[in-house]
Amino acid sequence: MRNFNDTAKDTLDEWINFLKNEEIPDNPKAKGLLKAKETLDYLKMDVKEKLSYDARQEDKRREASVYESTYVIGKIEGKIEGHKEGHKEGHKQGLEEGVKQEKIEIAMSLLEQNVSSDIIKITTGLTDTDLVNLRHNENQ
After folding, report:
1. Which value, to the nearest 10 degrees, does the dihedral of the CA atoms of residues 69, 71, 76, 79 take?
2. I need a surface site. Which of 3, 52, 64, 126 has the fewest CB within 10 A?
3. Distance of alpha carbon 87 from alpha carbon 80, whole angstroms
């Protein structure tokens, strides 16, 4: 270390410079150098500064924990709510499709018996367009 000329050319030189002069470049390339500097800075603090620093760090950890747990809980609740809504919507659509299919089957049966379009529309609630499409599909 005595032969080191205070010029860091590589990551080993950065560490040597840090150990010799307690200096660190703005953007060190050596792994762990920033963490080492933080630790050294902490060790240089007096007791009052350490207590204040520790309290601030604990507050940061608590805030991060609260945020993370709130985020995770919210995400889980959102998934559950979305699943329920999707299930309700799917059930509703399934019922609507079932009712529509039943109306079509009744209309097809009535068409086969040559019942008038007006009676079929009244009975099933289908439109003229629906009946035209049914007749077209029936003829194919």
Report:
1. 180
2. 3
3. 11
